[in-house]
């Protein structure tokens, strides 16, 4: 897979993981499509890191696998919950 293909794959997986995370986490999140993609991409890194730390999993088995996508979604949920906590604390402190 070339560089362009890798970038497109990362964006698509980021969009899927971010969108699923936003559907799972209750409440309204004011995030654009670009922010949803960024949420999914960051969530993929968090999920990959947690998979490596907890289970010793590695991307050596292939880039696109079901466990990687599930890890990306779990990571995106974690990142979204942290984002909500930080933004709620900031808006509460301003009042």
Instruction: Indicate the multimeric state.
Output: single chain
Number of domains: 1
Question: What is the helical fraction, as a range of percent?
Answer: over 70%
Shape: globular
Beta-strand percentage range:
under 5%
Please tally the β strands and state the result.
0
The computed structural class is: mainly alpha
Uncertain segments: none
- Along the chain, the helix and strand elements come as HHH
What's the total helix number? 3
Task: Explain what this protein looks like in three dimensions.
This protein has helices spanning 3-24, 33-55, 66-94. The protein is mainly α. The chain has one domain (3-94). Helix 1 (3-24) crosses helix 2 (33-55), helix 1 crosses helix 3 (66-94) and helix 2 (33-55) packs across helix 3 (66-94). The longest helix has 29 residues, at 66-94. It is globular. It starts with a helix and ends with a helix.
Layout of secondary structure:
Layout: H1 3-24, H2 33-55, H3 66-94
Helix pairs in contact: 1-2, 1-3, 2-3
